[in-house]
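INTERNAL TRANSFER SHEET
From: sequence group
To: structure group
Subject: Amino acid ABC transporter ATP-binding protein

Please process the attached sequence and return the structure record in the designated field. Keep the field labels unchanged so the import script can parse them.
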Amino acid sequence: MPIISVSNLKKSYGELDVLKGISLDINKNDVVAIIGPSGSGKSTLLRSLIHLEEIDGGSIQINDEYLVEQGSYAKPQEIRQITSKMGMVFQHFDLFPHLTVSGNLEIAPKLAKKEPMDKIKARSEELLEKVGLTNWKNAYPANLSGGQKQRVAIARALMMEPEILLFDEPTSALDPELTGEVLEVMKNLAKEKMTMVVVTHEMGFALEVATKAIFMDNGEVVESGNAKALFEYPQFDRTKAFLKRSL
Ligand code: ADP
Ligand code: MG
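Return from structure group:
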């Protein structure tokens, strides 16, 4: 059974049809690379999965629960519960500038008030070690490099113990020499079998790490399947042209 199942998802901004009936299934432990030209609807799709955008039609199921069923949303409390299984990492990190690195990690679980502070602290220390930032726990975001900020953002997303991590171009805002350290953290998560959906222009990373690739163009899924097969033997002209420009 898929962990994410999307069927006939439609989304418009006014006259502009941004997602024109997207259907896809993602299985547990998949690392899915979503690729496609700028403006094809990749960010809108990811944001819809986590309910940062409201869709106009179609269905989204997370595990076996409907976030939206044929255009009608679950109740607010159910929506919160369903989306809490997912964490998201954004292109521009979106850290809280007035909080330290530790503070950024601890704020959401603190506000959720579901566990004692010592447990939250212990997990924050563990995750900072995992992303190689133990020595930076008392620093403020302004004093970090872009690569360090993005590693904080990943650790912060992991604090809520998500079953699925969504990444929207996590290295696009970074200087080229800083992308490696972020991709390394993501590769380790893939090794630990984290289910990940990654919008990316890093074709090398996608080829090396992704189990599945989805090519989007103009609000549609043009082609999807095994990542290596899609990169090596694209079936459609639009996919071929895009890969030719990107590889
Ligand atoms: P991608 O991430 O593939 O570059 P997006 O999902 O960001 O694509 O955008 C798809 C289309 O939707 C683009 O034409 C974009 O200009 C438009 N769009 C995105 N967000 C909004 C918004 N909030 N209001 C109006 N148009 C938007
Ligand atoms: Mg985008």
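Handover comment: The pocket of adenosine-5'-diphosphate (ligand 1) is lined by residues 13, 16, 18, 36, 38-44 (CB under 6 Å). The chain has nine helices and eleven strands.
Transfer complete.
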